């Protein structure tokens, strides 16, 4: 089974941050949030031949997303790059309200040992990043030994 990795240990400060995030979500009130990484929702599926992860990455371009595997951990990073058009708008326009987030995205998943890490493939379509990986083919581990 694939497990998500929570990089933030539970502390009193983190519990307070959860309350502040609840205000942000429910009352549209920016309550001095200090979290800097977006935690995009993901769906994880186990199939007979492997696993599939779907990660919501709306607003990102394929070129802004990177995937890596190290020590059995799949890490997905994405960071929006501001276009020249956006930079020009900043100079010529006064922002009345800004709700678009430009936080970097980072998610990590601990891969099971049964995954063939060389089989990982990724596809990005309509704001959804789909990562597929195959399980190792099961090999009969019983070996007969001839007696001499």
From TrEMBL:
The identity of this protein, by name, is: SHSP domain-containing protein
Which branch of life, at top level? Bacteria
So what family is this one in? Belongs to the small heat shock protein (HSP20) family.
SUPFAM superfamilies this protein is in? HSP20-like chaperones
Q: Which CDD domains match?
A: ACD_sHsps-like (cd06464)
UniProt domain SHSP: residue ranges:
33-148
User: One Pfam family this chain carries?
Assistant: HSP20
* InterPro entries documented for this protein: A-crystallin/Hsp20_dom (IPR002068), HSP20-like_chaperone (IPR008978), Small_HSP (IPR031107)
